[in-house]
Amino acid sequence: MIEIEDVPQLRSPVLIAAFEGWNDAADAASSVVDHLARVWDARVVAAIDPEDFYDFQVNRPLVGTGDDGMRRITWPSTQLSVCSPPGALRDVILLRGIEPNMRWRQFCAELLAASEELGAELVVTLGALLADTPHTRPIPVSGTASEPDIADRLKLEQSNYEGPTGIVGVFQDAVTQADIPAVSFWAAVPHYVAQPPCPKATLALLGQLEDLLELSIPLADLPEEARAWERGVDELSEEDEEIGEYVRALEETRDTADLPEASGEAIAREFERYLKRRESDDD
């Protein structure tokens, strides 16, 4: 079982989870949790013992030198952190890990027990996948929710996907089976620029979290990093005629498929986030 450090009583905590690996195209989802840990000054309170869950020939430990000059081994693991976002009425638990190589059900059971011990009242899982989407358009984010009121508020639909799943899907199912409200967001990363990072996809997921939690999240340098990323891919498509033609074909397909109502709703939501962020900055 996961041993948790002494933690003060958390206020209606929401758990936000992301895992490196198959579920995390371009590291877009795990980068969200990393960002939240930085801007909300999260404190690690627990880590899962990796011995039972990871093949160290696949996820090798890392060796490095600490601030004291001593050489240390860092083992692949999954950690739980807690933080209190400024101005929020509830605390946040961050779950940041690596997709395990074995014993997935035991892995999820231990994480679920730790989540319940910390009092998680809502679980949000994040993922990212490679898709036929142009980098020049807003990153599509799909979502599902176990609670109808959340699905209605965020205009989410139940997923009809059938096929292989990763640890995000398995953990999401375990949470739902435990009768804990659950939400899942997935960002679609342009498959022709699959190498991490993809700050534009990370920003898209953060926007969905802002809508769900109804609070403004400090974005730091992410908007500029996203613009720089897009400019870099623009240059790549200009230099390679084949890629340029492919991007234009994706743009045409995307623009034809998108409904005006959906675009209007997306613009309205983004404007609301902008206003909330301004109000937060003024405070």
From TrEMBL:
InterPro entries: Proteasome_assmbl_chaperone_2, Rv2714-like. This is PAC2 family protein. Pfam families: PAC2 (PF09754). It comes from Nocardioides panacis.
